[in-house]
TrEMBL record:
Family: Belongs to the peptidase S1 family.
GO molecular function: serine-type endopeptidase activity
Signal sequence segment: 1-19
Gene3D superfamilies membership: Trypsin-like serine proteases (2.40.10.10)
PANTHER family associated with the record: FI18310P1-RELATED, POLYSERASE-RELATED
InterPro entries assigned: Peptidase_S1 (IPR050430), Peptidase_S1_PA (IPR009003), Peptidase_S1_PA_chymotrypsin (IPR043504), Peptidase_S1A (IPR001314), Trypsin_dom (IPR001254)
Keywords, ordered alphabetically: Disulfide bond, Signal
Protein name: Trypsin
Length: 243
């Protein structure tokens, strides 16, 4: 198991592979869909030796001025999750499916609020996004067998990963329900459809409701269980902080 955003730090500067589609063994998201999916680009992320690097995560708009993502995307030099002022420059882009043909809506992240119950963080934007409909947060307990859509900006493969330029999607099925996490498996287009490097924080949703967020999993692509953070167990916390 590994944290998808953290592995990326070690490989981004040495990758020479061409840009790959997000979500391993997924499919292209049609133009104009899933505008709520956010691509997070971070620079000057600190290492213990004082050097810095660039990295990426995925997230979802859940209120005009708030994006939800994985908590471990925002940390100090020792990989400890942080709250408060954003620890490094972070650009959040929404309303985008293809970076080569679209510009999207860019905002700067200004504040991080970490959840206590699971690996989730809320990111405040420097100004609201009013032209994209946010996801609502599901309060229903997920069920084994329930199918969810995953959409993200991660890499196609764990080998020489590179963030995507085209938003991808896939279908997964809930395989395990734990108190704060869900285990999911790929269902379509393939049983190996799975989140990959830079997909940390990618939303798993049904219709317009957020069910969980990408946390960690085996090397991608894979047919095993991916660990995601449940949204329903922190729905009240989310509502309080984004009101």
């Amino acid at each position: 198991m590994r944290l998808r955003a953290l592995l990326a730090a070690a490989v981004l500067t040495v990758s020479t592979a061409p840009a790959a589609g997000a979500v391993a063994h997924g499919s292209d998201v049609p133009p104009g869909q899933y505008g709520f999916v956010a691509k997070l680009a971070m620079t000057k992320v600190p290492r213990p030796d004082g050097s810095t690097y660039s990295s990426y995560c995925t997230g979802a708009l859940i209120a005009p001025a708030w994006v939800i993502t994985t908590g471990h995307c925002f940390h100090d030099a020792h990989r400890e999750r942080v709250s408060g002022k954003v620890p490094y420059p972070t650009t959040v882009t929404l309303g985008l499916t293809d970076e080569e043909t679209e510009s999207g809506i860019a905002r700067k992240a200004t504040e991080v609020r970490q959840a206590k119950e699971n690996d989730v963080a809320l990111i405040r934007l420097d100004s609201p996004v009013t032209t994209v409909t946010p996801l609502s947060v599901s309060r229903a307990t997920p069920k084994v067998g329930q199918q969810l859509t995953l959409a993200g900006w991660g890499s196609l493969t764990g080998a020489n990963p590179k963030p995507a330029t085209r938003l991808q999607q896939g279908t997964v099925a809930v395989a395990k329900v734990d108190p704060t996490t869900l285990g999911v498996r790929g269902a379509a287009p393939e049983i190996t459809t799975s989140a990959c490097t830079y997909d940390s924080g990618a939303p798993y949703f049904t219709g317009t409701q957020l069910v969980s967020l990408e946390a960690t999993g085996p090397g991608c692509p894979h047919a095993g269980i991916e660990t995601t953070s449940r949204a329903d167990v922190i729905a009240d916390w989310i509502a309080t902080h984004t009101a």
